[in-house]
Write a structure and sequence with these properties.
mainly beta, 2 domains, 5-stranded mixed beta barrel
Length: about 120
């Protein structure tokens, strides 16, 4: 399986292998910083300066940086720094996830994942 990669202008600086979200500016991305951000994928391996073009993996296999413990098969979302943390349902809230882990990972590991953005919508 090949990843789907598209280039977007970075609204802010984005580190490589971090989750990215749609910014308030049309067709621009920024580092994801919360489970409620509109996460669209993961930045490719290079760090990107604000205003430069960022290659974003929108779907398919990709390496991602972990922000905590993940188990094989866990759905993940973003911490405050664009790192992947386990997506946990919250009653009455929509939690956005970026994909699922293909291996166990701990803090700052680069792990294999499948990027497949979606939402966990949990009723009150």
């Amino acid at each position: 399986m090949m990843p789907l990669i598209k280039s977007f202008r970075a609204n802010t600086a984005v580190s490589g292998l971090r989750l990215v979200a749609a910014s308030a500016v049309d067709k621009e991305v920024e580092t994801a910083s919360d489970a409620t951000d509109l996460i669209i994928g993961v930045a490719d391996t290079f760090d990107i300066d604000a205003g430069d073009m960022a290659d974003v993996i929108l779907s398919g296999p990709a390496p991602v940086t972990a922000g905590g413990d993940l188990d094989f098969g866990d759905f993940f979302t973003s911490d405050a720094n664009g790192k992947a943390v386990k997506a946990v349902p919250v009653a009455g809230s929509v939690v956005r996830y970026a994909g699922y882990a293909l291996q166990d990972a701990t803090m700052d590991d680069q792990f294999s994942a499948v990027i497949a953005p979606g939402i966990l919508n949990t009723p009150v």
